[in-house]
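Final report, closing paragraph on structural work. Over the funding period we assembled a curated collection of sequence-structure pairs, and we close with a single example.
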Amino acid sequence: MLTLTGDNIILRALEESDLEFLYNLENDENIWEISNTTTPYSKFVLKQYLENSLRDIYEVRQLRLVICLASEERALGFIDLFDFEPKHKRVGLGIIILSEADRGNGYASETLELISNYAFKHLDVHQIYANISEENIASIELFKKAGFELSGSKKDWIFSEGKFKNELLFQRIQS
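Its predicted structure, as stored:
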């Protein structure tokens, strides 16, 4: 079985045809809090990002893949590996399923399992971590179900909508 292919999901590299989907995601103010974004992105900037997305994770310390529904080859969202530290054998993880209609169908769970297997097998990491706002109950449950454990809390870490919010650190450690 291919590491990035599951029963319902395929994780694939970014392509030029993803520009519109990426543009809609990056400019959705509803998710700026979790992506730490404060300004919109132009299509020009995102096109440049797509052109450079083929660079190796060992060089840029990041990898973004498109989450696709295998049966329709339709893009559902993105999964990001970031702050890759080969020396310390760790990598951060972020996931977004863009449409509310596609959430709650097990796609994110399958994606987390695929990307975790990939990171442990091909990147030889010892741990994967995720930073989640304590208000994001759905993500907390998703990561717990995927074997991530709560390791700590960063108090008043995110300032959004006129107030401070705590951010939780979850880790999945390969034994």
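The CA atoms of residues 7 and 70 lie 8 Å apart. The first strand starts at residue 9 and ends at 13. We thank the funder for supporting this effort.
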